[in-house]
């Protein structure tokens, strides 16, 4: 990926202790930081595939996947005809090249139903690994305009089930949201 994206050379990455990744990310421009995080996310995904005896794609396929994913995220960010529900974009061949065709999206296709004005929406998720009995959880709070209010993720070292991971995500997520906002919330 270093040939395609501007990412730090491995020789420049220094182990500064437990916070080494944060120390690295803080030195990068936002776009480069996102790309480094995408590579880490994809590596973890491939690691999970290998752990569960799934076929791991080649470096070229992974590179293409990451580039396509970043393009999709950029199109969503700039609302360039991307249909978030289907995960597809419209192409309109014009003059020998493919160009995005702008289309108005109807309200009924809104990917996220916002809460009422003056409320916050709390999204929660738990993830469980039955083999190691470890889990993780995350939460995201947004206002009625979809603006980020609060987000967090955490590691759960001992967990007995996916249900427990989801319950812990709900408990901790609601607790954090209540600590940081006095607004009513919908989960």
Strands, helices and their partners?
Layout: H1 20-25, H2 30-51, H3 59-78, E1 82-83, E2 88-89, E3 91-94, E4 97-100, E5 120-129, E6 134-143, E7 148-156, H4 162-180, E8 185-186
Parallel strand pairs: 5-8
Antiparallel strand pairs: 1-2, 3-4, 5-6, 6-7
Describe this structure in words.
This protein is an alpha+beta fold and 187 residues long. It has two domains: 69 residues, no CATH class; 67 residues, no CATH class. Strand 5 and strand 6 form a beta hairpin. The relative contact order is 0.09. About 12% of the residues have low confidence.
Strand order of the largest sheet: 7-6-5-8
Largest sheet: 4 strands, mixed
Strand content: 15-25%
Shape assignment? globular
Coarse structural class: alpha+beta
According to DSSP, the number of beta strands is 8
Low-confidence stretches: 87-108
| Helical amount | 25-40%
N- to C-terminal distance: 38 Å
How many independent structural domains? 2
Overall pLDDT metric: 79
Could you give the order of the helices and strands? HHHEEEEEEEHE
Radius of gyration: 20 Å
Quickly count the helices. 4
Quick recap:
The chain is of the alpha+beta class and 187 residues long. It is 36% helix and 23% strand.
Question: Features of this protein?
Answer:
187 residues; alpha+beta; 2 domains; 4-stranded mixed sheet; 4 helices; globular
């Amino acid at each position: 990926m270093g040939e395609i994206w501007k990412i730090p050379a491995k020789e420049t990455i220094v182990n500064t202790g437990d916070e080494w990744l944060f120390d690295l990310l803080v030195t990068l421009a936002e776009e480069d930081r996102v790309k480094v995080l995408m590579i880490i996310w994809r590596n973890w995904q491939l690691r999970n595939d290998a752990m569960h005896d799934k076929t791991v794609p080649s470096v070229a396929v992974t590179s293409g996947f990451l580039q396509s994913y970043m393009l999709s995220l950029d199109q969503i960010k700039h609302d360039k005809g991307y249909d978030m529900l289907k995960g597809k974009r419209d192409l309109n061949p014009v003059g020998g090249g493919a160009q995005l065709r702008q289309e108005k999206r109807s309200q009924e296709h809104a990917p996220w139903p916002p809460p009422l004005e003056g409320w916050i929406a709390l999204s929660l998720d738990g993830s469980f690994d039955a083999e190691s009995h470890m889990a993780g959880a995350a939460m995201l709070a947004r206002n009625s305009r979809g603006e980020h209010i609060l987000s967090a993720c955490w590691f759960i070292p001992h967990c007995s089930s996916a249900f427990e991971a989801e319950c812990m995500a709900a408990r901790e997520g609601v607790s954090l949201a209540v600590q940081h906002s006095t607004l009513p919330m919908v989960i």
